[in-house]
Amino acid sequence: MKHEILIRGQQQVPCLFFFGDSVLENGNNNNLLTLAKTNYPPYGIDYPGGLATGRSTNGLNLADFLAQLLGFANPIPPFVTATGSDILRGVNYASAGAGILDETGANLGERISLNQQLRNHEATIGRVVSLLGNQTAADGYLGQCLYVVCIGSDDYVNNYYFPLSPSRVLYTPVGFAEKLIRMFSQQLRDLYSYGARKVAVFGLGTIGCVPAALRGAMYGPQCLTATKATSGVFNDKLKSLVDVLNKDLVGAKFTFIDTFGITVSDPSSNGFQVPNLPCCMMSMGGMCVPLGVSCSDRANFAYFDGFHPTEAAAMIVAKRAFKAQSPSDAYPSDIQHLSKA
């Protein structure tokens, strides 16, 4: 596959930080004892050098494309390998299987929850203070950076909807969404207290319509209706939370990215002839079978495995998050405007 480079001139923010799950992860789980890692072929088949880096796709992921759109010449390094002055460009803390709730993803093994990712960021801030000389300089620098948060899918897939999960006994879909938002609100406030001012928060996508959920069933209104009853409720509450945070926190500029709305756009208009099947040979768990075959026409597939978008699909979400194609893509502003705020 030929890579489309999305770099738009000069770097628009001094640094870029990513928090989240497998949609953003680029290697933090590689050395963990976990089922949630993708550092084996056919993952990475289209990545430069054909390397399986820990990105859950065939090539570049959402974090890579957002970095390019913001003018970064190289990917933002994962926390586990970020060293020295490298951290001044930013750090990717994302971890496959991670959730808003600490217990999410326990069925997968080790993972780095959002709470732990925030603690890791606190450690990074200490290193930034050392590099820049004092806290005041660090605060000024970090306040100009962009922070991207994309998390919550695993709280449903590997918690609420996981077989025998106590969460489904204890909470209605609305009650569970409210629990997530309460925790997420505190986590985003913590991020603000660490100096973050420009924060893009991605809503949940069509988690009920991914190939692993459909298992060959037809992509269509039925799965979308079911998804709206869960992730749709969460997204509505998250969008409202963005308003609350912008009102409550001095100088805060939070924005909501409507991943669901972007994803359910007519797949054929995005060039995807195959919207509901995995490109790779899928295991029972929904991941690619190690060393298994993958489709040759990857640009025509929306999903690489049972859960994760192909490079082509990730690029579309990144482009629309960066520069809104529809007024509903981003609220109150897209990432391009947020970066300049």
TrEMBL record:
Pfam family, one: Lipase_GDSL
Primary location group: secreted
Cellular component, GO annotation: extracellular region
MF-aspect GO terms: hydrolase activity, acting on ester bonds
Alphabetic keyword roster: Hydrolase, Lipid degradation, Lipid metabolism, Secreted, Signal
Domain of life of the native organism: Eukaryota
Cell compartment(s), UniProt: Secreted
GO biological processes: lipid catabolic process
Family: Belongs to the 'GDSL' lipolytic enzyme family.
Name the UniProt record assigns to this protein: GDSL esterase/lipase
